[in-house]
């Protein structure tokens, strides 16, 4: 007992499933392309940001220590005039007899930090401590990028050498290819 209602409107709804599946496929492809473009924009933006040099005010350079400000201990009348409760100010070491005999550097911290390995040689007749170094970083062509300072607190015995391995000196520009470290100051122990 078929009244023929099954043929009414079938033309209108026939193929709706296929059209709906096609629309969903097109929407998902469009969403995927949009997501891909967004990801590409983020990657390019981060790449450009990494290539920009650090500004002076926002750099991660540590503050300059007061090691270089201390020159010599008071002597003679000045030492006698100071109260005995104050500890004597340590004297500065002679930098001419302290030198860096070897140095290398590499990147650490996902490529953003500089790790320096260096050997200090102390030819003085006394031990030194609080050795301050400054490392200058340059591009491959030799143009200067940035300087980083670090104080090495470990003492170096008299007439000896000591190797400091993988000392973090701070953040470094991604374009840095060369590093040259030099001594700034040291204290007698």
Automatic annotation (TrEMBL):
Lineage: Bacteria, Pseudomonadati, Pseudomonadota, Alphaproteobacteria, Hyphomicrobiales
Keyword Membrane: yes
Keywords noted in UniProt: Membrane, Transmembrane, Transmembrane helix
Superkingdom: Bacteria
Region described as Disordered: spans on this chain: 65-89
Bilayer-crossing regions: 35-54
Composition-biased stretches (Low complexity): 73-89
Protein name, per record: TIGR02588 family protein
């Amino acid at each position: 007992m078929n009244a023929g209602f099954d043929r009414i409107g079938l033309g209108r709804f026939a193929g709706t499933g296929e059209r709906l599946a096609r629309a969903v496929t097109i929407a998902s492809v469009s969403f995927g392309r949009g997501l891909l473009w967004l990801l590409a924009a983020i990657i390019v933006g981060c790449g450009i940001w990494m290539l920009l040099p650090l500004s002076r005010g926002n750099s991660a350079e540590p503050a300059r220590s007061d090691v270089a400000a201390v020159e010599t201990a008071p002597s003679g009348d000045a030492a006698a005039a100071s109260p005995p409760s104050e500890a004597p100010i340590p004297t500065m070491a002679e930098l001419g007899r302290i030198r860096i005999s070897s140095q290398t550097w590499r990147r650490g911290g996902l490529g953003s930090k500089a790790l320096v390995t260096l050997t200090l040689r102390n030819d003085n007749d006394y031990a030194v401590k609080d050795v301050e170094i400054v490392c200058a970083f340059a591009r491959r062509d030799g143009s200067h990028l940035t300087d980083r300072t670090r104080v090495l607190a470990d003492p170096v015995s008299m007439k000896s050498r000591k190797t400091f391995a993988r000392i973090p000196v701070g953040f470094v520009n991604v374009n840095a290819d060369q590093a040259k470290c030099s001594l700034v100051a040291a204290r007698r122990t």
